[in-house]
Design goal:
Length: 205
């Protein structure tokens, strides 16, 4: 008879090791993102390692080149944005309410996203380009829903939503309560997305 307890124990140990590795990876990338937002893409690798609570050797074993770390930061940021966009799309709400949900998610993630519009790393790999494309496609479907259900003016497009969300996710250093300010700006912006029945949607002048 085969004693399976040792096999089960080994499998559990490997699963725990993978879980710990993922947690450590997330902690490292979160620290690296904060450092890049604070000091720019040329922030010293030693600073990132110190912020993450790891040795510089450990950092270089995970990311032998700065470019690899910056791409990982960029992918993480776009994945967070994509998750937010998909959540907003899946609500089944009207177009404008789904956009509002997306903006709320951007505000909640402020300070966690190192994107090109925030002065973060440039997109350099096909994988990251694909993630950005998925974000735009998802938001495009939300905007189209708003055009169809009459809750979003027809001259508002995906780029408008992306640009404003990027602003909401980038706190002003002089504002001690950015979340409150961002929500106020969101309300004003969302009101402006409503179709203007009397004059048409197109902004002129």
């Amino acid at each position: 008879m085969v004693d399976s307890s040792g096999v089960v124990s080994a499998l559990e140990s490997r699963r725990q090791h993978r879980t710990d590795a993922l947690v450590n990876q997330e902690r490292l990338l979160a620290a690296a993102t904060s450092a890049v937002l604070r000091e720019g893409v040329r922030v010293p690798m030693a600073t990132i390692a110190a912020d993450a609570g790891i040795g510089i050797g450990t950092l270089y074993r995970s990311y032998p080149a700065r470019e690899a770390l910056l791409d990982a930061i960029s992918r993480r940021s776009f994945n967070l944005v994509l998750d937010n966009a998909r959540t907003a799309e899946s609500t089944g709400m009207s177009g404008v309410d789904s956009v509002t949900r997306f903006f709320d998610g951007a505000i909640a993630r402020h300070g966690e996203l190192a994107l090109p519009l925030h002065g973060g790393p440039a997109i350099t790999t096909a994988e990251t380009f694909a993630l950005r494309g998925q974000v735009h496609d998802t938001l495009g479907r939300i905007v189209a829903r708003g055009h169809d259900d009459g809750t979003i003016r027809t001259d508002a497009d995906t780029v408008d939503i992306v640009m404003f969300a990027a602003m909401l996710a980038q706190p002003l250093g002089t504002d001690p309560d950015w979340a409150t300010t961002a929500h106020r700006l969101k309300v004003i912006y969302v009101a402006g997305l409503a179709p203007h029945r009397s004059t048409g949607d197109r902004v002129t002048g």
